[in-house]
Amino acid sequence: PPSEECGKDEEFYECRPTCKNTCENYKAKAPICPLICIKGCACKKGLVKRNDGKCVKPDKCDKIPGNTPHTCSKNEVYKKCGTACPETCAKRGIRPCTKQCVPGCFCRDGFVRNSENKCVNPEKCPKDKCPPNEQYSDCANPCNDCQIKGKCNFLVCNKGCDCIKGHYRDESGKCIPEALCPPKSPSECAPDEQLYDCVPSCSRTCERVLSKVKIYCSQLCKPGCFCKEGLVKGYDGKCVRPQECTVISAPPENCGKDEVYNECGSACPPTCSNLGKDQVCTLQCVQGCFCRKGLVRNDQGECVQPDQCPKSLPIQECKKDEEYYGCIPTCKNTCENYQAENPICPRICIKGCACRAGLVKRKDGKCVTPEKCDNTPVPPIQKCGINEEYYDCVPTCKNTCENYNQKNVACPLYCKQGCGCKKGFVRRKDGKCVRPEKCDKKPANCGLRETYYECMPSCTNVCNPPDACAAVCRPGCFCRKDLVLREDGHCVKKEFCGQSGQPTCDINEQYYDCIPDCGNTCNSYGRTDILCPEICKPGCFCKPGLVLNDENKCVKPEFCPRPVRECKNPDQQYYDCIPDCTNTCDNFGKTVACPIICKPGCFCKLGLVLNNEKVCVKPKE
């Protein structure tokens, strides 16, 4: 495009500068510079982009007209290095995001931005606006992607949109059918596909064949299945010959006010959130409705003039020796765990302040170098209540009348000093620590078709269960497990609901209101280190006394394959939990968020790591 389309003090680049080009990063000693080429306008040489979107000399970075620092709206905090993808009511949970610093006002921890640009508690967000193939959940599975397919034990779950059954998130964060997930081996490729070291997923598609404009493809290289030579991927995901491609376009009348249809639109269209910021974007064509030229999309989804976007104002920073993270490190970040050989790293992403690189959190809450871990000041003596005592790490589960006798309880892995009930006591609803036998007694006045529950299944055991159930545990009387609650208040069998009855389960299976699928598999049977999330879902599973094997068949535990504890490779040893996430050349010595999936087998001996050629070598090699 001609240079006159660029703003004041800007010029057109064939490849825009991707780092040291803003007031925030021009002084960075080791900046993150994405290796991508995007045409467009950017500040002239010698100038950098300021927070107000203007190109200025570096010495004028702090001179923003009308700037009033340290004042943000309610429930907001200022961050010098905020995320480029802040959570909103419409977009919550873990999502792919560019690794860049964005200064400005952000919602405080525990809050998200609603359609009115206000930071609110997620509970106040509407529950019915989720993208295609997603549904609202009070406990969205953070491991629902094509690689792990939900099979991990997560300790923290957030409310938000989750993939519907049979769908998983691809690399862009979209929920796609399981059949479209990239396979892991040639045997999993479809008949019209073959395994590639570098999948040509951009260059050989109907979209590229039919496009009237040149489509630039990312230089990323990843292995997987794709259409065989001579075939291209169609819009429906099937492999076809190029001449069989048909144009699929949305009728222009489907677009809203101030929108136009574009066959090759940007994957990162301008919005109020990214206005004036140099964002990293993938080079791909996206069909759909876009705001007409000169307008941007606000948080309500409307196309507006840029000056109608809400203004963000800066405020506070992190404490001494802390820095802001888009994803706070979850392991090797405290005096207690920084030396752990195989730490459990929860696969969750929480934004906020944490110790800067090279420091760890001490018990007194200060960030120190590891050698200062033992110099912890003696905690102040805290006066505890009756039947209480002081703990360096207060017990986090099986410590209340409601959960002390529950099985497979998910215990949060965090350490907090304070008072807790003495050993042998649990906390009652009135806040007192009592012996379990003094907890509230079960009532004996339940109805004929009812039974007493510690946690009533009042959301799942009904004729018309909702899509999402609140994670609330309340004791009381409710319909027996073989019955459901009808709208008229009667407990009946499912066939009397006016709908289809319970699903027909395979032999050796039975229907459960809460599938006991955690700890009841050949790989996990009899183990005590399994972390089970408190998620209740109905369906078919193995009958009591049986466990699920690797072929998804229900068998007696004694028929489970015995693990082979001898390894053929002399450089390998047997592990009950293979350390195949951290002990590789790519991940060695790094803080990596590993799925909490434990599987036995052979892997490199201690002191060796696995290289890209699947050979065990010393780390320095």
From TrEMBL:
GO MF entry, a single one: peptidase inhibitor activity
Keyword Disulfide bond applies: yes
Gene3D superfamilies per the UniProt record, alphabetical: Laminin
Pfam hit, one: TIL
Stored InterPro entries: Ser_inhib-like_sf (IPR036084), SerProtInhib-TIL_Domain (IPR051368), TIL_dom (IPR002919)
CDD domains in the cross-refs: TIL
Keywords from the UniProt entry: Disulfide bond, Protease inhibitor
Transmembrane portions of the chain: none
Domain TIL, first and last residues per copy: 6-61, 72-125, 130-181, 189-245, 255-309, 318-373, 384-439, 446-497, 505-560, 569-620
Family assignment from sequence similarity: Belongs to the serine protease inhibitor-like (TIL domain-containing) family.
Name of this protein: Zonadhesin
Provenance organism: Parasteatoda tepidariorum (Common house spider)
Origin organism lineage: Eukaryota, Metazoa, Ecdysozoa, Arthropoda, Chelicerata
